[in-house]
Amino acid sequence: MDREEFQKLYGDGEVLLDSVFKGSQAIEKAPKIYGVPTGIEGLDDLFFVVVSEKGKIVKKNLGGIPAYSVFNITGVSDTGKTLMVEQFAVNQASKGEKVAFITVETPANFVASSLKLRATAMNLNFDDFQDNIIIIDAASSTRLRENIPDLLATLAHVIKEYKVKFTVVDSVTGLFETKEMLARAVVRRLFNFMKKWYQTALFVSQKRSGHEELTAEAAGGYAVGHIVDGTMVLAKELVDSSYKAKLYGKPVGDIVRLFRIDGCRMSGHDTKTHFLEITESGLVKIGQPIGK
Amino acid sequence: MIVIGSPMTDEKEVEHLVTRVFFKSIELLGGMSKLAEYRTLTWLPSLARASYVVVLKDQYMKTDEEIAEIVGLTKNTVRNILRADPELALRKVKALEELVKEESKELKVHTAGGVAKLAYREVKEGREAQTLIQYCSAVAEDMAKILEIPWAYLVLKKTKGIHYPITDSSSLKEKLQGVSIKGFSAEEVISKLHYPIKNPAELIHEIKQVLLNQ
């Protein structure tokens, strides 16, 4: 390569015409957004779109999370993050959809028994649709856990082979456990991958002890939340004052669980903080807004 | 339930990527013959190390400690490679003779890091080392012959040694002068291609598109 050619190639930057779209061209490629039911009672009604009907602007219930969205589900331990994504996976699988479940923390056999429990609690027969869930066991395989390209190549294979439309990662935090400074890069790569493959995806993301309970902040910092389309925040709080007792309508000494949606790029959403309940059979339910 | 417990990828993938980046780094520094002429073949170990480090960091997201362990360098050297400025390296590569004078015995860690970063970017954007492209072109030529696709065989045979990416029609016109592609003159076909063309596969694809539209 001679110098002139070099200059030509790298000189003052290159125009990347492939990345420039007119609005009309981009909209042609845009997928139609619809609601994906989550199987979590009370959650599906919290998303909506605004449409124009007979010249009037109407708020329309989406009936689930927007398709092709990527959500972070964040909270400290024992707030119900894993339960939520398990319910989502079971619900979609029971409808005949294929779900890829990447487990980073619990080995596959334990995830399987947990999913079965969830199905039973949801009054579904797990055996009827168990093969609709494809578990990628990154908890047991160091190579899958430590090498993002290997994990993504494996997921790409699974998506193609089984025609998967939904992906769950429990948890993304496990993918950068010992290297939190890489959190943003890891999540960015996962996010881009989900978009490329048109996945509707849920990422479980742990909170650290120093984080504010009801914010979108998760391991890796606020920056991680900025990458994804939206965050669902799960929290629990001890009722330790008469003020809180009055606010939550619970006696002092009780634990209340709270839930809120912190932003959703792809549709409108409810902005109130809701009560969250974990039933005895182990199901997450979203309740009324607090103060109602 | 379907459980997948091990990666569905080729174990050799890091190996291949590192080597491709290494080849590209050599090319950026003028190629093996220039390195020999300037007596700077001693640069190769530092280039190999830097290529390895850059791939492990950018593609495989390894920490500096992990990289140091895999490649057999100190953590500081790894950091220096990763901190290197590719733009500075680019300027140095452009003024190769000065670089030879300044770093004659051993390529500085910073320079090697910068060159490897440039090379990694090039490979990622589909501009492979010419050595690899020429070999692939030769294999494709054989393949076209075996599959009995005369026009593809002829195009690949005649374009041997052409520099990829092909940015305009002039070099192609020169190579394919007088050739006829499925009854059309090569000149006519060439003028309808979309440039730049990154590799032989893209060249064949582009020509096929034009033929289909005729």
Summarize the structure in words:
The complex is a heterodimer of chains A (292) and B (214). By secondary structure, chain A is α/β, with parallel strands linked by helices. In chain A, 32% of the residues lie in helices and 26% in strands. Chain A contains ten helices and 14 strands. Chain A has helices at residues 3-10, 23-29, 81-94, 108-121, 126-129, 142-146, 148-162, 183-196, 222-227, 242-248; strands at residues 35-36, 47-53, 56-61, 65-66, 70-75, 99-103, 133-137, 166-170, 200-206, 230-238, 255-264, 268-269, 274-278, 284-289. In chain A, the strands form three sheets. Chain A has a nine-stranded mixed beta sheet, with helices on both faces. In chain A, strands 3-2-12 form a three-stranded antiparallel beta sheet, with no helix packed on it. A two-stranded antiparallel sheet of chain A has the order 1-4. In chain A, a hairpin with a 2-residue loop joins strand 2 (47-53) and strand 3 (56-61). In chain A, helix 3 (81-94) crosses helix 4 (108-121). Chain B is mainly α. Chain B has helices at residues 13-28, 31-37, 44-58, 64-71, 75-83, 86-94, 96-102, 109-124, 130-146, 150-158, 169-175, 186-190, 200-213, and strands at residues 2-4, 180-181, 184-185. Chain B has a two-stranded antiparallel sheet with strand order 2-3. The mean pLDDT of chain B is 90. Classes of the chains: A alpha/beta (292), B mainly alpha (214). The interface between A and B is medium-sized, with 37 and 21 residues.
